Every structure is written in C-alpha cells, then in structure tokens.
Amino acid sequence: MEKIIIYSHADCLHKDNGPNHPERKERLEVVINAIQGINDIDIEIKSAPLATLDHVAPVHPEAHLSDIFAMIPTSGLTSVEQEPYADTFLCPNSKDAILRACGAGIAAAECVIQGDARRVFCAVRPPGHHAETTRANGFCFVNNAAVTARYLQDKHKIKKVAIIDFDVHHGNGTQEIFYSDNSVLYGSIHEYPLFPGTGSEVEVGVGNIFNAPISAGTNGQDFLKIFKSKVLDNVDKFQPEIILLSAGFDAHKRDPLANINLESKDYYSLTKDIVDIANRHCQGRIISFLEGGYDLVALAQSVTEHLYGLQDDQLKH
C-alpha cells in the first residue's frame, strides 16, 4: 500500500484573520479531522518544522520577508494591503504559522528525496500560491510551493519541476516567480474572470506557463477534460522529475468564493490523473500543498478524495 505522509502543525491553527474571514482555522481543523478518520490508507502525520530565512530567500528577498515580519502586531490585526483590498492580515501568531507552512514543504522535499514516501500532503495554512516575489496578497505571504521547488533544485539538483495548480483562483504568485524560468512548468486551471485577475491563455512565460481559464458554471466533466488537455498533457510532455500541487478545493460547487461545480469525487479523478503522470516520469513523487477551499463540508470531503487519489491502490471508498 502506498504510504502518504502528512505534514502539519498546531501553529498553523493560530493564524487569525478576524471574524467572518473565509481563511480561518476551522479549515485546517476539519482537514485534520478528515485525515484522522481515514483508516484504509497508510497515513503518517508528522510535525512541520519552521522554515528558515535561508530556505525562503531564493524566492522572496530577505528584506521583503523581514518587512512583513516587522508589521506583525502585538495585538489585533494588521493588513498588508491598502483599502479597499485589505483581506490579507497579520496577527501576533503569524510568523510561526507562515514558517511552519513553508517548512512543511522543505520537510516534504527531504521526505520524497530520501525515499521515506513518494506522496506527501502539507496540511497547512496560511496558503501560498498568491504570494509574489515581493508582494503578499490573497491571504498568502510566502509561496510554499515555489520555495519547495527552489529548494529541490538548489539542494537536490532536481532539474525539472512541475507545479500544478487546481485552486479555483489563479496562482498569480507562482506564475510571477517562474515566468521566465523554463526549468519550472506552471499549469493552472481556474475560474476566469475572478480574483486575482491574472491567468489568461496569452500568459505563457517562456513556454513554461499553461493557463486553462474556465467560465463560471463549469461542471466536473468539462473541468476534467479541460484540465487534461490544457494542463496535464503539457505536464506529461515536460516530463518533470517531481510534481508539486497547489491543491485548492474551492472549485467545489458548495464553495462560497467561486462558481465552479465540482463534486467532491472529482478531486479523486483529477488526482489520479496526476498520479499517472508522476508514475511515468517522477518515480511517483508528488508533494501537495493545501491552498483554498472555504466550505468546511466540501473541504473535508474533497481532501479525503484527494488523499485516496494519491493512494496508488484502487481502494473502494
């Protein structure tokens, strides 16, 4: 049976965004509860370490990160954005949450390189895919997937990394970071137009960016077809040595922040399609990062389906 390692940490629960904010600690609580309720997959939950500034610096300049940390309040909340777009907040417990979320990816990288497991899921918050080189936005401060990609390249000499993003919002941060870097493929399927406004098909980088914008109301069957033809087929041609996932579950029909109509089981199907590519080119190696997903029922179900998809055996569930 394929073992799946989960990296998480209680520090990620202490990141507060204030009342009625969609990116709240309950998201992670229901994810962990769902994972603990799975009894027919070999799952091991491990504690995410703190990332260091040295880990982050190849993606985000140290001065930028220091500026963010210097804004952390001793009480209450501080926005890193100007009104009326203020929805990315720092609270007194932000630093350790940010560094644990990023550190999960570093630990996951070591895990797959050392052969402890081929599949790792980072159950963390805050999310990361909107974080640009020198701009925090969209609830994101450090781009967890991007930092992990650079770490794999710098420390372990991985030459070709694919980052697949199925969050319903385009990962403007990941695209910006790797826009001129043909050693990293970035492929995203997302509702368009929608926040953050990027992600049209004409944004192609140096031939390494593959955007699949979809219209409001798209159903699961059409989503999966477009995902395969516009994103996964290009990943297959790229033949990556490892696949990283920005795993957002907000394309679910229940999600309040978007208008795509996936069912929970669709996350099983799309994950299995990714696993097939990983088994062909990457020795099966996949690191998945929790990004969005704001309806708690849908999130718990969808993460469960995602983990069954990451499991090689065709389990009944």
Essential attributes:
317 residues; Arginase, Chain A; eight-stranded parallel sheet; two-stranded antiparallel sheet; 9 helices; 37% helix
Summarize this entry quickly.
The protein is built from nine helices and ten strands. The chain is α/β, with parallel strands linked by helices and about 325 residues long.
Helix content: 25-40%
Span between termini: 15 Å
Order of helices and strands: EHEHHEEHEHEHEEHEHEH
CATH class: Alpha Beta
Number of alpha- plus pi-helical segments: 9
Low-confidence stretches: none
Rounded to an integer in angstroms, the radius of gyration calculated over CA atoms is: 18 Å
| Quaternary structure classification | single chain
Structural class: alpha/beta
Write down the CATH topology: Arginase, Chain A
Overall geometry: globular
Average per-residue pLDDT, rounded, comes to: 96
Specify the CATH homologous superfamily.
Answer: Histone deacetylase domain
Fold topology:
Blueprint: E1 4-8, H1 25-36, E2 43-47, H2 53-56, H3 62-70, E3 78-79, E4 89-90, H4 94-114, E5 119-122, H5 144-156, E6 161-165, H6 172-178, E7 184-191, E8 209-214, H7 220-238, E9 242-247, H8 266-281, E10 286-290, H9 296-310
Helix pairs in contact: 1-9, 4-5, 7-8, 8-9
What does this entry look like structurally?
- This protein has one domain (4-310): Histone deacetylase domain (Arginase, Chain A, 3-Layer(aba) Sandwich), CATH 3.40.800.20.
- 37% of the residues lie in helices and 15% in strands.
- The chain is built from nine helices and ten strands.
- It has helices at 25-36, 53-56, 62-70, 94-114, 144-156, 172-178, 220-238, 266-281, 296-310, and strands spanning 4-8, 43-47, 78-79, 89-90, 119-122, 161-165, 184-191, 209-214, 242-247, 286-290.
- The protein has an eight-stranded parallel β-sheet with strand order 2-1-5-10-9-6-7-8, with helices on both faces. A two-stranded antiparallel sheet has the order 3-4.
